[in-house]
Amino acid sequence: REVTEKLEEVVTVWTKQIRHVLVESEQIRREVDDVGPSAELEHWKSRMSSFSSLLDEIKSSRVKKIISILQAARSKTLQQWKELDRSITIAANEAKDNVRYLYTLDKFFGPLAHASPVMMEHIPSLMNTVFMIYCTSPYYNTSERMTSLFLKITNQMINTCKTYLCEG
């Protein structure tokens, strides 16, 4: 009984830490006004790395042993643990999926940043790719995510035009 209580304390601490990570990940991102679309990819790559590491830790043999001991003891802390495990898995899958889709746009980021203001040759392909992401991504096809992406693409176009004007 004493061992079970100690392990429940450990799982309770983990639960609080994981909840904190989840809450932090859902907070509104603070970005400078003129950030470009590559920042979106970097954000999701960072998030993917964080959640993948967290998932690896949750799936480690040490954690599995503790969870199996608590399962045998029919601990009540496991319900919360299972919900958090599911939430972390969903967040990791979302980040991985978003990185995969945003990488399809990566080939446009360089030309968009370094083209002359007559960047029209890149726009149709870029918009087709964004449309494909919107239509096929199970996570990235929300109004909020698309608005953020379009804002960053527009910022990059404006920055490219400003640079062109200042250098010209």
TrEMBL record:
GO cellular component entries: axonemal dynein complex
- Source species, domain of life: Eukaryota
Q: Name the GO terms of the biological process aspect.
A: microtubule-based movement
Known Pfam families for this protein? DHC_N1 (PF08385)
Task: Spell out the InterPro entries in the cross-references.
Answer: DHC, Dynein_heavy_tail
What GO MF terms are annotated?
dynein intermediate chain binding; dynein light intermediate chain binding
Specify the Dynein heavy chain tail domain's residue ranges: 5-166
Name of the protein: DYH5 protein
